[in-house]
Structures are given as structure tokens and as C-alpha cells.
Fold this protein.
Amino acid sequence: MKARTRLAILGAGNIGCSIARGLVQSGTFSVGNVLLTRRKMHLLQKLAEEGFVVESDNDNAVRSSDVVVVAVEPQQVNRLLKDITPALDRDKHTVISVVSDVSIRQIRTVIGKNMRIVRAMPNTAIAIRESMTCLAADDRNSPEIGIAEDIFKTVGRILVIDEEQMIAATALGACGVAFFLRAIRSASQGGIEIGFHADQALFIAAQTARGAASLLLSMENHPEYEIDKVTTPRGCTIAGLNRMEHAGFSSALIRGIVSSAEKASKLYRANENETT
Ligand SMILES: NC(=O)c1ccc[n+]([C@@H]2O[C@H](COP(=O)([O-])OP(=O)(O)OC[C@H]3O[C@@H](n4cnc5c(N)ncnc54)[C@H](OP(=O)(O)O)[C@@H]3O)[C@@H](O)[C@H]2O)c1
């Protein structure tokens, strides 16, 4: 990323601020080259003190940047896009939308210009450079995908997918953080019941989850291959695992992910006429 490249994040809420923090932490952008907007400006005070440029005017933010990340809720996106349309310049800007359920075609229809648009689906671990970010554009080999890859690969792992898979990416990758956090929390509660203090139980559960994930990512093995190494015949692991499966462990996760995807596919249509 060129040192002078400026990034505007329109809608500095949960994911917008996480993206901003991760990209500064990675050195991809200097803090003074990241512009953040939201309507309740007082909530950006702390970020302003950290050196981020905070703006209430989306149009101004777009005019003074090169890469524009749109990070508002689906029901807020039409109004925002209409506000920034006059400032958008195809020769200058790459637009990256992290908004769930709003397609590139729908974004183009609202802005009425043939802008270079990428959809990105990161998760909140982007704040600590551990995101799983799925990316999609009209063309996998387009310059805009290259720009998005250069940005998001500095804050975690990336995967270029077909745009039609973005709903699935939302459920598995973005919502997925909450699913695994709840699993870790549940494991820690079990740990408390069998003898650990809460802080010890959470520490052991979280580091064990991290190790399990790392086994898959670094060895590229199938989970069952690694599970087979832990499940001694007639042992305690298989006893616990089978008990969980009888209670619907895998089924609950699968159903939860399918429900999240169903909901994610209705976020924009359900709200597209709202004007908040
Ligand atoms: N949270 C996640 O983990 C995650 C992950 C991937 C994708 N996403 C997607 O990212 C989007 C944002 O999610 P979120 O969880 O970050 O929601 P959020 O915390 O509600 O953030 C949205 C932000 O947009 C601001 N906003 C709304 N209208 C605006 C406007 N016209 N101009 C400037 N700012 C405006 C809001 O602040 P004001 O009210 O002060 O304007 C709010 O801070 C959603 O589409 C979501 O599906 C979220």
C-alpha cells in the first residue's frame, strides 16, 4: 500500500473500528491516513485522541481518500450511498463494502456509476490481525480484488470467493466468531464445575481452542484425524465427545450456521425502505 494512500471507513461502528485498528496495527495505513465517519461523532472521541481523522461528513471523507470502506447496517446503506455518490470517482476510488446481503449490482444501482466495487466479509478479530476475510468482486482477477487482497491479507487470512457465497461467508466467518466464543465460554463453565476458578477455566479453554484451530491451520489435517489422536479407546475424551454428540453438539452448530445464513439473506430486502 502506498504511504500516501488514504482510507475512509464510513460507519465506524463495531466492524468499522475493528478494521481501522487492525490496519493501523499492521502498519498498512498510518493512523493519520484513516478517516472515520459516523453520525454520533462524540462516540469517535477516543479514536480521534488516538490520531484517527474523524469526520461527520461522508462526502468530505470520500473526497479526501482513495479506498472507501462502507460499514453501515444494510438498512442504512442506501442513504449513505446516495450521500457519497457525487464524490465518487471511478479513476480514484475503490469501494469496499462489508455490508451483509447487499450485492455489488445493488450498490451500483443505488450509486448509478460504474465504480470499482469489492465485497469483503471480515470478522471482529481483524482488530488483532486475526480475521478470516472473504472477498468477492465481478472478476477475480480485477485490480480492485488485488487492492482488497493487499489490504486484508495484512490483518488475517483471506479467501477470494464467488459473490453468491457471501451469505455463507457471513454466517460461517463473521457470525462464526460468536459461535466459537460461546463454545469457549461453555467449556469454561464446565471447567468451573469440575474445579477451576473462572479465570483459570477461561484461560485453559481459550488457549485449548486456539491450539485446536492452530493444529488444523498449520498441519492442514482433517479435524477427525486430530480427534482420533485424543480419543484413547475406552477413554475419557470419547466418553465426553459422545455425550456431547448425543446432546446434539454438531447438529446444533450446523443448524445455527444454517439459521444465520437464512437470516443474513434477508437483511437488506427486509429493511430496504427504512430511512434511518
Ligand atoms: N460486526 C461484525 O462482526 C460484522 C462483520 C462483518 C460484516 N459486518 C457488517 O458490517 C455492517 C456494520 O455492522 P456493525 O456490527 O459494525 O454495526 P454497527 O456497530 O451498528 O455500525 C454501523 C455504524 O454505522 C454508522 N452509521 C450509520 N449511518 C451512517 C451514515 N449515514 N454515515 C456514517 N455513519 C453511519 C453508525 O453510527 P451512527 O449511528 O453514529 O451514525 C454505526 O456506528 C453491517 O452491514 C454488518 O452486517 C459486521
User: Anything to note?
Assistant: The pocket of NAP is lined by residues 10-16, 37-40, 58, 71-74, 76, 79-80, 98-100, 121-124, 174 (CB under 6 Å).
